[in-house]
Amino acid sequence: MRKIAVLTSGGDSPGMNVAIRAVVREGIRLGCEVFGVYGGYEGLIEGRIKRLSERDVGGIIHRGGTMLQTSRSERFRTEEGRARAVRQLQASGIESVVVIGGNGSFEGAKKLEAEGVATVCIPGTIDNDMPGTEMTLGFDTAVNTVVEAADRIRDTSFSHDRIGLIEVMGRNSGSIALWAGVACGAEYVIVPEIEFRIEDLIRKLQASIRDGKRHSIILSAEGVGSGADIASRIKAMAGYDVRTTVLGHLQRGGSPTAADRVLGSRWGVEAVHLLTRGERGRLLGIVSNKIVAHRYDDPIRQENHNDVSLATILQNLSI
Amino acid sequence: MRKIAVLTSGGDSPGMNVAIRAVVREGIRLGCEVFGVYGGYEGLIEGRIKRLSERDVGGIIHRGGTMLQTSRSERFRTEEGRARAVRQLQASGIESVVVIGGNGSFEGAKKLEAEGVATVCIPGTIDNDMPGTEMTLGFDTAVNTVVEAADRIRDTSFSHDRIGLIEVMGRNSGSIALWAGVACGAEYVIVPEIEFRIEDLIRKLQASIRDGKRHSIILSAEGVGSGADIASRIKAMAGYDVRTTVLGHLQRGGSPTAADRVLGSRWGVEAVHLLTRGERGRLLGIVSNKIVAHRYDDPIRQENHNDVSLATILQNLSI
Amino acid sequence: MRKIAVLTSGGDSPGMNVAIRAVVREGIRLGCEVFGVYGGYEGLIEGRIKRLSERDVGGIIHRGGTMLQTSRSERFRTEEGRARAVRQLQASGIESVVVIGGNGSFEGAKKLEAEGVATVCIPGTIDNDMPGTEMTLGFDTAVNTVVEAADRIRDTSFSHDRIGLIEVMGRNSGSIALWAGVACGAEYVIVPEIEFRIEDLIRKLQASIRDGKRHSIILSAEGVGSGADIASRIKAMAGYDVRTTVLGHLQRGGSPTAADRVLGSRWGVEAVHLLTRGERGRLLGIVSNKIVAHRYDDPIRQENHNDVSLATILQNLSI
Amino acid sequence: MRKIAVLTSGGDSPGMNVAIRAVVREGIRLGCEVFGVYGGYEGLIEGRIKRLSERDVGGIIHRGGTMLQTSRSERFRTEEGRARAVRQLQASGIESVVVIGGNGSFEGAKKLEAEGVATVCIPGTIDNDMPGTEMTLGFDTAVNTVVEAADRIRDTSFSHDRIGLIEVMGRNSGSIALWAGVACGAEYVIVPEIEFRIEDLIRKLQASIRDGKRHSIILSAEGVGSGADIASRIKAMAGYDVRTTVLGHLQRGGSPTAADRVLGSRWGVEAVHLLTRGERGRLLGIVSNKIVAHRYDDPIRQENHNDVSLATILQNLSI
């Protein structure tokens, strides 16, 4: 009988619990023993490993966060740390691990694979910035969370003829800002992928105001700089009063959307199928609406092509 | 200058307003005059046509339903009715129409095209049962609405160790039931695509109960028969107390999700682009995450392949 | 050291978990041992009693339903059943019980008190039909759930110029229908407290239609009869197409609102304070925004006076 | 026939639209002409006054913000500004004004009354800091918005064993923080009404951690100082990593809860009844669950007594 472990690593994202549930239940159904590693790679090093039953993952499908908790582990970046992690797995007789997380966690999975542990990686991050997939687990939920917040802020921006600036997550990726921007009808979006000239933004705001529309919503990705700073610059240059909201970790929590729950279930099942068939060292993705499994050593391209074209749509549809 | 009209027809779906907004604003941006037809094909016959400005579609992106209202028109099925509809368009100098609706509306668009009016059809229905697209406009919102309802019903089913049956929409298509079923961790789903044997359902319930789990959620698509009837049969055959909820038109309303808002915006923009380029008689779709435009006379295949495979996932992951 | 048990009984309501958490934590803080009875009075008879720690009630404040589960117990109506229940308590050394539930549960608490067990009863029901309190635990959440559903149904009713009828809970009490009706701007509400003449309803609908408003929302409390029947009668008498939604147990679930969470916390704390002070046989309530404790044998009046006056407001504000 | 105007002033709050709808419809029903003043006192000075029909306030009951928009007017603080405002009313033949807003707006209403205009003031603010009422319009919605945000942040705080600090609105009043704190099970709350010693907070966090609970939620009212500063001080003194979220204007928007919709409807109706009966210079409130009308020159006490006692409950129930 095969022993499979599952761990979540890096920033948590809504839908991780769904994937854990799928790995555990599909694993057990196919005759495996399934173990949960608590606290990500750090927990692996410390041997926080517990066998899970089908019941242990009951009642979690609709909950945000990860029941296994997560961490960012400095020790796992060291050879010694990784050696210890591998020994912990060996001590429990575990040969394979499903890693759920973002780019950092994927790097960790590759290293674990290099140490001889069979791994499959599920792209779990709200940032939608991983290669080989059009969508990451948690992205759809995060975008909906931002849109809901923007809908509320628009109410009060309209009441006061005021500009609302919302700083959203995204260090290198403007995906959340772009999708949420189109979805909430934002007047402007500031993202790492597109050069930002504050003059353009101010020109757009001035045009709106000339046109009789005095309230606007601006979305800015954190990677471009602090929302509060951008607000001050607008104030200094054009005299407009801009109210800033920093959504922060709000975007990471919340009950996953249906799309994230379906995606997490499909990926969790697929991860187990791959491992039980002996296919390892695979990064999962969804491309052209099909589940795909990339080899770690293949060149894996970025697949979230649509994003920048959304900027044009947003620009053209907001007035 | 080109004159474009937009109408919504058949059952309404969340996201129709988003598509209307996109057609109007992109149309005007490209130098067209855009007209709204009120009340679907029936309104077209009656000449309920009004020119729309960019402002007229402000503040609707987040609202369910359709600002243009909709109808099911008997008269439009007659030659006389259609002739009158065409005359109404000619009287306003309108040469092209964007139709947003389901399969019935698509049939109407084909007939309008046959009468010489340039048309593009946007698949707007919660049922996800149209050819040529992996997703219809409103489907994602409807699934999330069902999942939210199911999450609530699970609370009380657990409290009472009871079986909750939720009847959802879907005459010929089990898409809503299947997606929502996986997403809410339903124990069983009854859909038109899969032969239903009540003995299998009862066996599954009995196995759960033997296993110590006494509450369950069953989703059934309306096309398979009334939820209340199925509940009675379960009661008669196995003695279990089943509480039925009929979500009904609840599933049609509500603020559209981010995914539906982005999809509706992209399709609305594309419809205008096609018509201004002289490409007509096109059914829009999203396939492999790309916007596609099928010719009405091409064979258009069903693209929502994943659905039935979801039934297996659901079956295997619920215990 | 005092031993207190807590049980939930009858139909579950959102906020029961909050009250359980408050009883357990406040009890332990004051030096008591606190026990959970699983499965209501039936569970009490069967001795399903477990000691609870502060941690056991962690992570439940936001969850619908009741972690202790509930039941309607026939056996507890018999002397023998009750005698057995009392023996179970004695066997664990428990002298006092906090009962959370509706009118039936309150009757049970009185009987338990008569058998010599110290009891306090917390009014937990969505129906808002208990004496001695302006508000019951779960009512605010249920009303918000209905309003959210009605907001969605209004979207689609408007799109189709159609009448939507929503059947809501309330056997003898129209509280949910009246509050939700005012809050969603319903055009008509049918409740047990007010004589219903279908002619009045039809006259109102006709007036609206003459006035150019062709969509309406009707709320009807289940106690007045089946929503589907009322819809058929409207159809038969006036020819209007009415779509019916039966919200059913949907109204019982869902994360409790802030108001229900605050109320449940206050009542849970108060119940423990009373029992530790030796004050027993008390039904809690909230009157004039103050927590009150009625003696079981005092005459306890109905306090939800406002309800019927809401009907006038609803009538006057809808057009 | 009487002419009544309605205006919203100061910060907007969810439920203002409900009150506007009630004033307009009840006013017209009783034979008055009702006018909307756009843009608060500033708009009044500028004569932005428009007659409203019953239809003009249709479809707004569920929308956040205020359709009449609002402002903070410097000019209205001057005698000249007020004189001009009064002339604008006289020019339209309007003798009475319903003012919906917070303490600043109430001051304005008193001044208008002193100038001979009949006024009634509806307490519309999310802050719950007005005299003569247990609850202000918008407070219930704002608290629920904060609780929803806190529920999401708890998900991710748990996943990371981290402390989440949420800065909420409230310059002089901790009502939002206290109610939301009890409702979300916050571990600590920092409010203007209670002296804050950071040592106490750190002691509480240390006790939790010793006890094995490593994630916590802290709510702080903006009046006590910036959330980011408090987070830095915790980091400096105890080394804990605290993530801050600033909810900002998010708290002002959103569809009003059922309770706010009922309250706004009742107050709007009452305001019209008072004015048509010739009772003027009245501040509305809800005390002991009854609508009350205080004379401006009476001493009006603060009625939100419960707040501080909530701090004790919060402290005792969180572990």
Automatic annotation (TrEMBL), chains A, B, C, D:
Catalytic activity entry: beta-D-fructose 6-phosphate + ATP = beta-D-fructose 1,6-bisphosphate + ADP + H(+)
Organism: Paenibacillus oleatilyticus
Summary of the function given for this chain in its UniProt record: Catalyzes the phosphorylation of D-fructose 6-phosphate to fructose 1,6-bisphosphate by ATP, the first committing step of glycolysis.
Cofactor (UniProt): Mg(2+)
Catalytic site: 127
Binding site for substrate: 125-127, 162, 169-171, 222, 243, 249-252
Residues given in the record as ATP binding sites: 11, 72-73, 102-105
HAMAP family according to UniProt: Phosphofructokinase_I_B1
Protein name per UniProt: ATP-dependent 6-phosphofructokinase
Domain Phosphofructokinase: 3-275
Binding site for ADP: 21-25, 154, 185-187, 213-215
Pathway recorded for this protein: Carbohydrate degradation; glycolysis; D-glyceraldehyde 3-phosphate and glycerone phosphate from D-glucose: step 3/4
Complex formation: Homotetramer.
